[in-house]
Design brief:
Order of helices and strands: HEEEHEEHHHEEEEHHHH
Strand order of the largest sheet: 1-2-3-5-4
Distance between the termini: 32 Å
Largest sheet: 5 strands, antiparallel
Helix content: 40-55%
Low-confidence stretches: none
CATH class of the largest domain: Alpha Beta
Number of domains: 2
Number of helices: 9
Strand content: 5-15%
Number of strands: 9
CATH topology of the largest domain: Aminoglycoside 3'-phosphotransferase, Chain: A, domain 2
Radius of gyration: 19 Å
Length: 299
Amino acid sequence: MSTGKMHPGMHPIDDGLVRRLIAGQFPQWAGLAVERWPSGGTVNAMYRLGDDMVVRLPLVQGGAEDVSREQEWLPRLALHLPTRIPKVLGAGEPAQGYPWPWSVYRWLPGELPEAGALSEPVLLAEDLAAFVAAMRSISLSAAPKAHRGGPVAAQDAETRAAIEELRGIPQEDIDCDAAAAVWEEALRAPGWDGPPVWLHADLMPGNLLIDGGRLASVIDFGCAGVGDPACDLFPAWNLLPADARDVFREALAVDDATWIRGRGRTLSQALIALPYYRRTNPAMAHNARHVIRAVLDEG
């Protein structure tokens, strides 16, 4: 859970505001308990509502578009996926001084996976590959562009700036020259020349729920849309050990160019996240360090 202010422009949210919003727009749920749910997420606050629901409210303006995207696309995507995803039970409107749309979802049980502590990593890799493959096979029209789903070069300036910033933080002990070399390789790799495919586009450990070591649910579709399939290879480095990583790649039949782009994209996200979140979001910073080690150790 965050220990400080992660972003400028964050709107204050507390239990009282959530209760007022629920009472004003969903009076049938007004008597249910409201409790802040600890989360390593970066743009939304989560509140349990009774035993079976969760309220998700953007903390910043940028999260408002994510809520609207989920409200439109989750019901349509759910019909095509082998894994449970959030179900929107209520679409909230700005009120009570709160400026953005928000949602009530069915609560999905499960535990967050932790890299290095997976009980069934190979089976989880197979589950993740099945989810990614199912996303790619979706052919819904008028799809939005996925966040970060465009050319690798679109992240070049921000990635290079992050590498230089990390050079100035010696306590992080990052081999910035090696990281830059991996990034350069991703830039040189052939780009995706096929049609854009549906992506979750944010397959971080915090957006996965497991049960008995297997994938139970995938949450947070705020970045979803169409783009380069390399964008959904994140779990290979942010979660899976080397042997399970190979299973994940083989199950998806990933070619060399896509694998190189996926590795570069995953590293880029981690390099950007680490200096940004290192003092405000321990979960994000911890995962960023894991990704950087995993990518550089892979050579």
